[in-house]
Amino acid sequence: MLELRPNCECCDKDLPPSAEDAMICTFECTFCRSCVDIVLKGVCPNCGGNFAARPIRPANKLIRNPPSYKRVLSARPPINDKN
Questions:
Q1: Which residues share a beta bridge with 16?
Q2: d(CA 2, CA 82)
Q3: How many CB atoms lie within 10 A of CB 41?
Q4: What are the backbone dihedrals phi and psi of residue 8, each rounded to the nearest 5 degrees, phi first?
Q5: Fewer C-beta neighbours within 10 Å, C or N terminus of the chain?
């Protein structure tokens, strides 16, 4: 069962279970689509894999299969695109 992590590991943006911009790698590293596209260039900084859209768990399934509340931040700091 997917963990459904609550945040982007790069920018710490909230990614609730219904987030349409949540992306995951094969190890469930979780990032927002913006960080995947702009900062990470489609490559997971933790495992080197690619990303896919995280499935949205139906609301009626969240009661018995709740999302994770543990926030995870990658050791790699975000890259500043403005420079």
A1: none
A2: 34
A3: 8
A4: -75, 130
A5: C
Find, among 77, 58, 66, 48, the residue nearest to 5 by Cα: 66
Furthest-apart CA pair in the chain: how many Å? Answer: 46
Instruction: Please report which helix (H) or strand (E) contains residue 52, including its range.
Output: strand 52-53
In the chain, the amino acid numbered 1 is: M
| Cβ–Cβ < 8 Å for 10, 35 | yes
20-30 residues labelled b (16+ CB within 10 A) or e (exposed): ebbbbbeeebb
CA distance 73 to 83: 23
Chunked mean pLDDT (size 10), the chain, 83 residues: 94 97 96 96 94 96 94 68 45
Please, what are the domains in the chain?
1-56 (3.30.40)
Ramachandran region of residue 4, left (φ > 0), alpha (ψ -120 to 50) or beta?
left
